[in-house]
UniProtKB/TrEMBL annotation:
Catalytic reaction list: 17beta-hydroxy-5alpha-androstan-3-one + NADP(+) = testosterone + NADPH + H(+); 5alpha-pregnane-3,20-dione + NADP(+) = progesterone + NADPH + H(+)
Record's subcellular location: Microsome membrane
EC number, UniProt record: 1.3.1.22
Domain (3-oxo-5-alpha-steroid 4-dehydrogenase C-terminal) ranges: 172-301
Key words of the record: Differentiation, Membrane, Oxidoreductase, Sexual differentiation, Transmembrane, Transmembrane helix
UniProt keyword Oxidoreductase present: yes
Name by which UniProt lists this protein: 3-oxo-5alpha-steroid 4-dehydrogenase (NADP(+))
Organism: Megalops atlanticus
PROSITE patterns in the record: S5A_REDUCTASE
Alphabetized Pfam families for the sequence: Steroid_dh (PF02544)
InterPro entries per record: 3-oxo-5_a-steroid_4-DH_C (IPR001104), SRD5A/TECR (IPR039357)
Transmembrane segments: 75-93, 114-135, 147-167, 179-198, 210-227
Recorded topology in the membrane: Multi-pass membrane protein
Amino acid sequence: MGSTLDAAALSDFSSDHSFTFSASSGSFRGGAWNSLSQCGARLASPDGETAARDTSRTTLQTPSEPGERMACQEQVVHCISGGLILAGVLFLLRQLRFQMPYGRYAGSSKRWLVPARVAWFLQELPSFLVPVLLLLSTHQPSILGKYLLLCTFCLHYFHRTFIYSLFTKSRPSPLKIMISAFAFCSFNGFCQGHYLLHCAEYTEAWLRDIRLVTGLILFFLGMAINIHSDYILRCLREPGDFTYKIPRGGLFDYISGANFFGEIMEWFGYAIATWSMPAFSFAFFTTCLIGPRAYHHHRWGCAFNSSAMKK
Ligand SMILES: NC(=O)c1ccc[n+]([C@@H]2O[C@H](COP(=O)([O-])OP(=O)(O)OC[C@H]3O[C@@H](n4cnc5c(N)ncnc54)[C@H](OP(=O)(O)O)[C@@H]3O)[C@@H](O)[C@H]2O)c1
């Protein structure tokens, strides 16, 4: 092939190796990466441009060269995404009868409780730290994938880990909830980060794609609703007070679970902006996890109102 590669040759080569990208859809690839790795070759196209445009990016590297981009584990990512959807359905079914045992549903046991600020900080930290560490250890990430990851996923978890946890006035959290949330956040942080940095490949056309624009609008709108609603809830309490009142203002005037509504909107926005299976499965899982919680809160609020009217 020599040191230069013309566009036609590359196009033949890429179709032979299922190297798929489309200018209109900003698609991704992974199969190609694996095929190339198996051939002992790497096609360096880190910024999503077609390598045909810049032949200097077409290089041959040995698979173990230090600092190279981690190979996309496409099969694993798809299995995990399927697993997340299945887990979401199971959570949904379980929550038809049982509430997630934290906050007002934690029960009266005082054993194995962790202060809420510590619990929220520790359990959410991996969702921020794991993608950031992946990003720092990846020398040739997908450039648009990198910015999408930083502007959406990491931004959300930066707020949740360093701001929400600092100000929360929640009652102490059960240790087992904290541990399971920590495990989930580590796993999901890796899955989302790995996919956006090592598997997804967006062309420049994706910057003008309606899915990216709509997805980002939904994400930031959802984030604003979520943060504002959590702020309203926080203002209902003085420090050390764990009583419940009916929240008023913002979207709480229309929906009882306004903070959950914002969070669900955020993750569907993220899924649309990235147009990726792991992001869709995470949005689905979130809906199955906090959707029923919103419903239980609503029922609790109705019962609270009717008992207040009787008094
Ligand atoms: N992505 C995900 O999978 C996921 C999963 C879970 C949570 N989250 C997000 O994490 C945040 C917190 O979740 P959460 O389940 O703790 O939400 P939540 O049950 O609505 O509670 C949020 C905070 O407000 C307090 N609170 C709730 N209702 C209140 C009322 N009527 N009067 C006074 N205080 C009240 C809670 O105190 P208590 O804790 O003492 O009840 C807690 O401090 C939300 O933004 C949620 O969207 C995301």
